[in-house]
């Protein structure tokens, strides 16, 4: 029984037990720096870590890559630094511009196997996470969705109630009519 609930818990929380985890989404204002921290399982301590950007073709273009050591590596405005004590590496992108917004990956190179990858969306906008940006889907927060459901519910009720009443009266009228015609 306890084993079953443990298994259920493991299934519910896959992110907590996977070999590489990241923040998913990172927000930063233009001109500032974005910091991305990705955690990996202890056994990948000595593996090379990297940061790449998904291109329009769907490839992941390398931006920075460690050799597996803790030395920081910096290319242009992007740097990466591994920490073997915390089992995490930090990517920093400096002097952000709107064109830096996009989809990236934290990666851990695995010899002879598929690399570990976790997707990170970088959003560049002023005013923090709630500021409007060019991604329409992110503007559909839960409160506006609730409002939409509420409005469509009202429209549904408003439309259906008269229709239902009309149907009931129609059937009743036809019923009376057939009664009257059979009486004649
Ligand atoms: C790793 O993180 C720990 C705790 O913050 C820190 O003491 C240590 O200096 C870091 N190592 C490197 C190489 O940055």
What report would you give on this structure?
- With 184 residues, the protein is an alpha+beta fold.
- The chain folds into two domains: 14-126, Immunoglobulin-like, CATH 2.60.40; 140-184.
- The chain has four helices and ten strands, in the order ααββββββββββαα.
- The strands form two sheets. A five-stranded antiparallel beta sheet has the order 1-3-8-7-6, with no helix packed on it. A five-stranded mixed beta sheet has the order 2-10-9-4-5, with no helix packed on it.
- Mean pLDDT is 84; it is low at 7-12 and 133-139.
- The structure holds 2-acetamido-2-deoxy-beta-D-glucopyranose.
- Residues 70, 83, 85-86 line the site of 2-acetamido-2-deoxy-beta-D-glucopyranose.
- The chain crosses the membrane at residues 147-171.
- It is found in: Membrane.
- Pfam families: V-set (PF07686).
- Residues 23-125 form the Immunoglobulin domain.
Overall tally of domains: 2
* Structural class by SSE content: alpha+beta
Q: What is the CATH H-level superfamily of the largest domain?
A: Immunoglobulins
User: How much of the residues is beta strand, in percent?
Assistant: 25-35%
DSSP strand count = 10
Query: H/E element string?
Result: HHEEEEEEEEEEHH
* CATH fold description of the largest domain: Immunoglobulin-like
Strand order of the largest sheet: 1-3-8-7-6
Integer average pLDDT: 84
CATH classification, class level of the largest domain: Mainly Beta
InterPro entries: CD300_family_receptors, Ig-like_dom_sf, Ig-like_fold, Ig_sub, Ig_V-set
Subcellular location: Membrane
Organism: Pogona vitticeps
Main location: membrane
């Amino acid at each position: 029984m306890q084993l079953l609930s443990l298994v259920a818990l493991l299934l519910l929380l896959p992110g907590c037990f996977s070999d590489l985890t990241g923040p998913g989404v990172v927000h930063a204002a233009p001109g500032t720096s974005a910091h991305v921290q990705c955690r990996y399982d202890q056994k990948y301590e000595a593996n090379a870590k990297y940061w790449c950007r998904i291109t329009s073709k769907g490839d992941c273009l390398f931006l920075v890559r460690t050799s597996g050591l803790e030395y920081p590596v910096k290319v242009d405005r992007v740097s990466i630094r591994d920490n073997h004590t915390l089992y995490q590496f930090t990517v920093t992108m400096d002097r952000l511009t709107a064109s830096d917004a996009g989809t990236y990956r934290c990666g851990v190179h695995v010899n002879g196997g598929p690399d570990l990858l976790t997707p990170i969306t970088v959003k560049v906008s002023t005013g923090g996470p709630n500021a409007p940006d060019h991604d329409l889907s992110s503007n559909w927060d839960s409160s506006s969705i609730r409002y939409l459901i509420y409005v469509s519910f009202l429209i549904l009720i408003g439309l259906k109630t008269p229709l239902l009443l009309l149907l009931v009266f129609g059937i009743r009228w036809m019923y009376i009519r057939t009664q009257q015609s059979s009486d004649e």
